[in-house]
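target protein:
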Amino acid sequence: METNALFYKIQKRTIWTEDYVNWSHNLLKTDVSSPSVNIISSFSFDENIFEVEVYFKRALNELVIEKPTLEICARAYIGHLANEIIKENNHSLTFDFAYMIYRIVASDLDYPNDLMEWYEISEMIDELRNGDIPLEFNENDVISRIKNEAGKYLIRD
């Protein structure tokens, strides 16, 4: 997981030990290292999160990383979710990731123009799941649109 996306999960209190460990592995893959990053990378996913957070704070100091704004973090987490969408083959999970992006767009970013497509996508998903009128699109059309939008986000990000 990328650092700014990790900060988003921290701010939203949805962080797990696994997220810190994956973050450290991502840094090491890109040849970014510090003593505390190395220690975090050796933890198992079921390690006590409070212990891992101590090393995370040390790693931030060692790497001179400062906490970014919520908008930067939210957009980074959208990028993380867009990556998950591109990799995902399960339609239900793809819909869940798209909804997660929509919630970030609505609640954390207040509907910026460049992300309004996610509002339209969430409406399409709602119509598919809850609607009782005939639609001009089907599940595969919506999945295609979600994957297309995720790809466009990753290109411009």
User: Anything to note?
Assistant: Residues 20 and 116 are 31 Å apart (CA to CA).
